[in-house]
C-alpha cells in the first residue's frame, strides 16, 4: 500500500509505504521526478509536477523503508523500482521524500482584503488558474470558504480572467473540498463569456 500524507490533497504529500502492517517513509537520496511519476500513477493522481525532498510535508514516523530509489518512470508500483536495502540506509526523517501530482488541487483567494476574500484561484497541473462564475453558486462558494478555514460565504463578486487556465466546478451537495465536486478544466464552452469567480467569506485569513 502507498499513500501521501501532510499535503493539501490526496495527490500531494510525503510518500508513505506499508510493509507488513507498518507504515514508513522513503528517503530523498536520489529521489527525482521519474520516482514521483510512479507514485502519482499508482495513486491515479496523473503525473508528477514536483518531487520535493527534505521533509517538505513534515517529518514522518516509523521505519525508512526505501533509500536511493531509482525508478525509470514506467514502473507500475514503487516496490518494482531498484533501491538500497532498508537496513543499509543512512537517512533520518528530515530527508523524507514527497511528491506533487498533476491532479493535486489547491485554492487561494487573491486581490481581497485578506486570505478569506478575493478572486478564486486554483492550482492544478502545476499552474494557477481562475474559476468560471457560470456555475459558481452559494454551494460552491460555501465549500471553498469551509475548505480554506474561512467560515461561511457572504458574497460572490466577479472578476476578470487574467490567468492561463479556466476551471469550472459544480457541486450537487456539500463536500469537504471542490475537488470532490464535478469539475472541468480548460473547456471553452461552459466558460464562454464567463467572468472569474470570487468569494467573500465571513472569516479572516492571513
Topology (SSEs and partners):
Elements: E1 2-6, E2 12-19, E3 22-26, H1 33-42, E4 48-50, E5 64-66, E6 98-101, E7 105-111, E8 117-124, E9 127-131, H2 138-147, E10 153-155, E11 158-159, E12 166-170, E13 182-185, H3 188-191, E14 196-201
Parallel strand pairs: 3-5, 9-12
Antiparallel strand pairs: 1-2, 2-3, 2-6, 4-6, 7-8, 8-9, 8-14, 10-14, 11-14, 12-13
Overview of the structural elements:
This protein has 2 domains: 2-101, Mac-2 Binding Protein, CATH 3.10.250; 106-201, Mac-2 Binding Protein. Helices cover 12% and strands 33% of the residues. It contains 3 helices and 14 strands. The strands form 2 sheets. Strands 7, 8, 9, 10, 11, 12, 13 and 14 form an 8-stranded mixed beta sheet that branches. Strands 1, 2, 3, 4, 5 and 6 form a 6-stranded mixed beta sheet that branches. The protein starts with a strand and ends in a 5-residue tail after the last strand. One of its GO terms (cellular component) is membrane. Keywords: Disulfide bond, Repeat, Signal.
> What is the highest CATH level, the class of the largest domain?
Alpha Beta
- What is the number of strand segments? 14
Tertiary shape: elongated
The average pLDDT is: 92
**What class would the helix/strand composition place it in?**
mainly beta
Specify the helix fraction band.
10-25%
Annotated CATH architecture of the largest domain: Roll
H/E element sequence: EEEHEEEEEEHEEEEHE
How many domain units?
2
| Main sheet makeup | 8 strands, mixed
The third-level CATH topology of the largest domain is Mac-2 Binding Protein
Amino acid at each position: 500500500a502507498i499513500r501521501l500524507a501532510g499535503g493539501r490533497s490526496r495527490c500531494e504529500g510525503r510518500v508513505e509505504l506499508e510493509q507488513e502492517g507498518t507504515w514508513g517513509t522513503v528517503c530523498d537520496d536520489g529521489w527525482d521526478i521519474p520516482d514521483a511519476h510512479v507514485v502519482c500513477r499508482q495513486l491515479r493522481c496523473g503525473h508528477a509536477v514536483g518531487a520535493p525532498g527534505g521533509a517538505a510535508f513534515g517529518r514522518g514516523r516509523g521505519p525508512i523503508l526505501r533509500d536511493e530509489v531509482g525508478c525509470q518512470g514506467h514502473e507500475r508500483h514503487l516496490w518494482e523500482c531498484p533501491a538500497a536495502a532498508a537496513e543499509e540506509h543512512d537517512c533520518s526523517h528530515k530527508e523524507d521524500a514527497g511528491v506533487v501530482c498533476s491532479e493535486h488541487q489547491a485554492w487561494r483567494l487573491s486581490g481581497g482584503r485578506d486570505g478569506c476574500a478575493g478572486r478564486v484561484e486554483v492550482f492544478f497541473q502545476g499552474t494557477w488558474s481562475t474559476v468560471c462564475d457560470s456555475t459558481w453558486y452559494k454551494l460552491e462558494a460555501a465549500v471553498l470558504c469551509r475548505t480554506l478555514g474561512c467560515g461561511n460565504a457572504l458574497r460572490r463578486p466577479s472578476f476578470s480572467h487574467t490567468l492561463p487556465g479556466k476551471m469550472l466546478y459544480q457541486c450537487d451537495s456539500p463536500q469537504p473540498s471542490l475537488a470532490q465536486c464535478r469539475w472541468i478544466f480548460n473547456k471553452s464552452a461552459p466558460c464562454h463569456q464567463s467572468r472569474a469567480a470570487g468569494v467573500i467569506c465571513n472569516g479572516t485569513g492571513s
